[in-house]
UniProtKB/TrEMBL annotation:
<feature type="domain" description="Connexin cysteine-rich">
    <location>
        <begin position="134"/>
        <end position="201"/>
    </location>
</feature>
<keyword id="KW-1133">Transmembrane helix</keyword>
<feature type="domain" description="Connexin N-terminal">
    <location>
        <begin position="42"/>
        <end position="75"/>
    </location>
</feature>
<keyword id="KW-0472">Membrane</keyword>
<dbReference type="GO" id="GO:0007267">
    <property type="term" value="P:cell-cell signaling"/>
</dbReference>
<dbReference type="InterPro" id="IPR000500">
    <property type="entry name" value="Connexin"/>
</dbReference>
<keyword id="KW-0965">Cell junction</keyword>
<comment type="similarity">
    <text>Belongs to the connexin family.</text>
</comment>
<dbReference type="GO" id="GO:0005243">
    <property type="term" value="F:gap junction channel activity"/>
</dbReference>
<dbReference type="Pfam" id="PF00029">
    <property type="entry name" value="Connexin"/>
</dbReference>
<keyword id="KW-0303">Gap junction</keyword>
<comment type="subunit">
    <text>A connexon is composed of a hexamer of connexins.</text>
</comment>
<feature type="transmembrane region" description="Helical">
    <location>
        <begin position="178"/>
        <end position="203"/>
    </location>
</feature>
<feature type="transmembrane region" description="Helical">
    <location>
        <begin position="77"/>
        <end position="97"/>
    </location>
</feature>
<comment type="function">
    <text>One gap junction consists of a cluster of closely packed pairs of transmembrane channels, the connexons, through which materials of low MW diffuse from one cell to a neighboring cell.</text>
</comment>
<dbReference type="GO" id="GO:0005922">
    <property type="term" value="C:connexin complex"/>
</dbReference>
<dbReference type="InterPro" id="IPR017990">
    <property type="entry name" value="Connexin_CS"/>
</dbReference>
Length: 219
């Protein structure tokens, strides 16, 4: 899978972000995207082939694997990376709209098309809310699908066509557990960063509006 588009998107958003937003971009790019591409993808690459049960009943192993791993960890992680990054497109599109509007009118309509104010501020806040919400949704989804954030060494399966309860073994459970904890930790860090940036922007522009009103009253 090519991640060039996501990389370019994050690079473009970085130009219009606050300081906290740039930290978020760095975390997503360095600690999530790069780790996924260079290491995590290979760990889960042959997870189905390396899933073994102590019985050779046709279909039993496949059914057990599908029951305990309804969605691959690594594919769900990839979907999470894509989904939490795409709300940033709203900001990129809004800035592009401002720039095209200036070209159409052939005059300077904004002091800086990429400055977070006015309508762009609302778009930026919406993108932060969406990113935070998606992070939380995926963490809950991970927890519900796999009954917690854990990778057991042994699972017991009694689903048909298995004739009785069979033992199935998951390959490299410790290594997978480490990366799963890393996934959860970086997701939580991104949630904290998004909430911090959201609070910062709301506080900053609330103070700005208050000072404007106060100045007008004094005048």
């Amino acid at each position: 899978m090519s991640w060039a588009f996501l990389r370019d998107l994050l690079s473009g958003v970085n130009k219009y972000s606050t300081g906290i937003g740039r930290i978020w971009v760095a975390v997503v790019f360095m600690f999530r995207l790069l780790v996924y591409v260079t290491a995590a993808e290979n760990i889960w690459k042959y997870e189905h082939d390396e899933f073994e049960c102590n019985i050779k009943q046709p279909g039993c192993e496949n059914v057990c694997f599908d029951h305990f791993f309804p969605v691959s960890h690594i594919r769900l992680w990839a979907l999470q990376l894509i989904m939490v990054s795409t709300p940033s497109l709203l900001v990129v599109f809004h800035v592009a709209y401002r720039e095209n509007r200036e070209k159409h009118h052939n005059q300077k309509l904004y002091r800086n098309p990429g400055k977070i104010d006015g309508g762009l501020l609302c778009t930026y806040l919406i993108s932060l809310i969406l990113k935070t919400g998606l992070e939380i949704v995926f963490l809950v989804l991970f927890y519900k699908l796999y009954n917690g954030f854990k990778i057991p060494r042994l699972v017991k399966c009694d689903i048909k066509p298995c004739p009785n309860t069979v033992d199935c073994y998951i390959s490299k459970p410790t290594e997978k557990m480490i990366f799963l904890y890393f996934l959860v930790a970086t997701s939580c860090l991104c949630i904290v960063l998004n909430l911090s940036e959201l609070s910062y922007l709301i506080f900053k522009y609330s103070i700005k509006c208050y000072l404007k009103r106060y100045t007008k009253k004094q005048q």
